[in-house]
Amino acid sequence: MTFQLLSEREEAIAQKIVDAAYAVHKKLGPGLLEKVYEVCFCHELSKRGLKYQRQVDIPIIYDGMVFDEGLRIDVLVEDLIICELQAVEEMNPVWEAQILSHLKLAGKRLGFLINFNVPVIKDGIKRIIL
Length: 130
What we know:
Number of helices: 3
CATH architecture: 3-Layer(aba) Sandwich
Helix content: 25-40%
Shape: globular
Number of strands: 5
Number of domains: 1
Structural class: alpha+beta
Mean pLDDT: 92
Distance between the termini: 12 Å
Largest sheet: 5 strands, mixed
Low-confidence stretches: none
Oligomer: single chain
């Protein structure tokens, strides 16, 4: 299996995503609801000139049929990068598998699992490349 590096554009967007997460965590800190972090994170993305979509449905294709009630991405940035946001005490390892599934089903290569309920945000950001 050959591993392809991410494009310069993907890396530049990824840096802005991490920067946006840092900005939100610095202003709000831990302890709030996921929805609060989501709206503020998206605001920070737009301040950085990034386009995003919230709560994006991914249809499931199974047995030759398309099912619309499949999966939902928290935030899709520039139609390239998937961001799954959390505000939890402990990360569940299943969420990593979930974002990998989202990447495969959506045909994307890069995703972030971001947990805002941490004392230090760098401990809450996991970068996942398919």
